[in-house]
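thread: overnight batch results

M.L. [08:02]
morning all. the overnight job finished for the chain we discussed friday. pasting input first so we're all looking at the same thing
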Amino acid sequence: MKNKLIAFILAVVASQVVWSQALNKNIEPPKLVWKKFIQFALKGDVNEAANLAGGEFRKKILKGSPDDQKKFLKEKFGEFENNPGKVNELIAQGVNGLQATVLFKPDKGITEIEIKFVFNKEENRWVIISCGKVAGTENPSAASNIKRLKQIAIACWFYSDKNNGKFPENLSTLKERKLIMEQETLSWINPKSGEEKPFLYCQGLSQSDSEKTILAAEPEAVDDKREVLFCDGNVSEITENAFQIQAKKQKWEVKSATAPE
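M.L. [08:03]
and the structure it wrote out:
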C-alpha cells in the first residue's frame, strides 16, 4: 500500500512538472505553433511543416514524392492563404498526457477547423497530431452548438486554473467573470426549429474528474443524439441512451427530452 501511495505521489508531481513546462512562457503555445505551421504549409516548406507535426499527421505530410507532399499541403491548407481568422485555445490534462485543441475560424467561409496537439515532454514543445473540419459544419446551427460548447470548455478551464481546479457553480458565472463575452454562447440552438435553450450544466465538478464525466450538454436530443462536453474539454456526439446512463452515474438528474420535428 505504501509503495502504491509513493508511486501515485511521484506520478502527480511528474504531471505537475510537465504541466508547468507546457505553460512556460518560453514554450511556444499551440496557437502560435499552428500559425507557423500554416506559414510553412503555404510556402510549400514540407520539412518545416512536418517538424511541427507528429504521429499519423506527420506521416501524411511526408507521404509520397516531394511533389506529392507539396500538393498535399496546398490542397489541404491553400484556402487559408490571405484568410486570417479567430483562434481559440484549450489546454487540458488528458489520459495520455497534456493535450491541446485549437479552434480556427477563417474570416472567409463558415468552415471551422479543429487542430489537436500533444505536448512532447522529451523535446519540450507542442506538436500537431491532427487537423480537420469541425463535425457538423454542413449544418450552421449544429456547427454553432459545437463551437459554443468548445468556448464553454475553454472558459471553464480558465476559471478552474484560478480556482483550485474547480469548475464554476453555473454557466452564468462565466459571463459574470467575462470569460464568456456573449450571452448567446451559453445557449443551444435547435437545428430543426431554431429555438434557443440554455445548455445543461453539471455542478460540483473539477479538473480531477474523469474524462468520461459530462460537464455540459445540449438540453434536448436530436435524432436520438446529443453533443456533450466532457471534463477533459472534449466535445463529442453521443446517443441519448449513453447520455442518460452517464448522467445517472454522475447522479445528475436530467429528464429525457427530444427536440420536436
